[in-house]
Design brief:
The chain has 129 residues and is an all-alpha fold. The chain is built from seven helices and no strands. Helix 2 runs antiparallel to helix 3, helix 5 packs antiparallel against helix 6 and helix 5 runs parallel beside helix 7.
């Protein structure tokens, strides 16, 4: 995931790369690969303040990852963190608060410290309300 706000705001190449990745995984990947690329689209769209599209992508990936039992702890933390950011970008403060809280809980529950550190890089960029 992108770790710097400046990277997104100043380089629309990230948006192009996220969409290229989504296209690739739609053609060549599994459903999980496709939903991970949808998660990336939700993140980049949210960070670029593209609320409606961020929200649509976030809702889709959240539904998928929360309905399957094999979602790893680190990935569930990403799901809720990105969902929170998309909700904020869309102006849905109630959903933002719920998902931000769930992301915090999931982040605390990540067993591997290295995985937690990776998720924390994205989580720490989410605007606080």
């Amino acid at each position: 995931m992108s770790e710097s706000l400046e990277d997104v705001l100043n380089h629309t190449e990230l948006l192009d790369a996220a969409h290229a990745s989504a296209w690739h995984w739609r053609v060549a990947g599994t459903t999980t690969n496709q939903m991970r690329s949808t998660m990336l689209l939700a993140l980049i769209h949210a960070r670029m303040d593209m609320g409606p599209s961020a929200w649509n992508y976030a809702e889709s990936m959240k539904k998928y990852f929360t309905e399957i039992s094999e979602t790893p702890d680190w990935e569930l933390a990403f799901v809720y963190a990105i969902h929170a950011w998309a909700a904020l970008a869309c102006g849905n403060l109630d959903e933002y608060k719920v998902s931000y809280h769930k992301a915090s809980l999931c982040l605390d529950a990540i067993k591997d410290p290295e995985d937690r550190a990776v998720v924390l890089k994205t989580f720490s960029l989410i605007p606080k309300m």
